[in-house]
Design brief:
By secondary structure, the chain is of the alpha/beta class. It contains seven helices and nine strands. The structure holds adenosine-5'-triphosphate (ATP). It holds the Pfam family ABC_tran.
């Protein structure tokens, strides 16, 4: 069953300083099924953040429809930066977003599963960027949402910390299943994480290719991920610019 149906006919932005507009998204449609992990890959400036903002309900100035099956629950959103309030502790930052839905015990359990159990009362400036990103991940999973939007959440982490964060994300997703739409520029990351990858064109952006990841979760070692990328080079000529 679909948990999200997206059908955007057109999204325009004004050209800076001019009365004209330009079209950033045109005729872009896709579905996400319940608890599916979908990655969105596309060139810089093609409208990936704009698309997430539309799905999150932060931008309503577009022509089209977004149908979130569980419309009573807003999607949760992990932004490119952790967006933690510096004057609140880790626990307070999460409670601020989740009250009154999540129990203290369940927030603590989620933080412990991300190795943050010793930092419940730490302030964000006492944490590394990787730790702050894990707090924002915990906050998203403590919300009772059926859909999680993620905008390049691990982009500025070094490889070791990004790998740790990806592992933590997959563990949480198994514990608390939900549909995920994850934006990334990194095709290896997309192959590591996704059930399915959608590739977007340059603006006016639309879907130019869709790939199901046939590897099982345990098969997704760096070697297998590279081999899968090689296979895409020959099987999906449309996506060569991303390889
Ligand atoms: N509020 C706005 N007003 C005018 N133009 C905007 C606005 N927001 C975004 N844009 C433009 O729309 C286009 C798409 O921006 P968006 O941030 O969605 O791209 P993106 O694919 O997420 O980029 P990146 O991968 O670099 O993060 C860009 O040309 C950007 O300059």
């Amino acid at each position: 069953m679909s948990s999200l149906t997206v059908d955007i006919k057109k999204k325009n932005f004004p050209k800076s300083g001019l009365k004209e507009t330009f079209t950033v998204i045109e005729n872009l449609s896709f579905d996400i099924t319940n608890n599916e992990f979908v990655c969105l890959v596309g060139p810089s400036g093609c409208g990936k953040t704009t698309l997430l903002n539309i799905i999150a309900g932060l931008d309503s100035d577009y022509d089209g429809t977004i149908n979130n099956q569980s419309s009573k629950l807003r999607p949760s959103y992990v932004f490119q930066t952790p967006r933690l309030l510096p004057w609140r502790t880790v626990l307070e930052n999460i409670q601020l977003a989740t009250q009154p839905d999540a129990s203290l015990a369940s927030i603590i359990k989620t933080l412990q599963s991300l190795n943050l159990g010793d930092h419940l009362h730490s302030y964000p400036h006492h944490l590394s960027l990787g730790m702050q990103r894990r707090v924002s991940l915990a906050r998203a999973f403590c919300l009772p949402s059926n859909l999680l939007l993620m905008d390049e959440p691990f982009v500025s982490l070094d490889q070791a910390n990004a790998n740790k964060a990806r592992g933590a994300l997959l563990n949480l997703w198994h514990e608390k299943p939900r549909s995920i739409l994850f934006v990334t520029h990194d095709l290896s990351e997309a192959i590591t994480l996704a059930d399915r990858i959608l590739f977007l064109s340059a603006p006016p952006s639309h879907i130019i290719a869709e790939v199901n990841i046939s590897l099982t979760r345990t098969e997704r070692t760096p070697n297998q991920v590279n081999a899968f990328k090689e296979h895409l080079k020959t099987s999906q000529p449309n996506i060569r610019p991303f390889l």
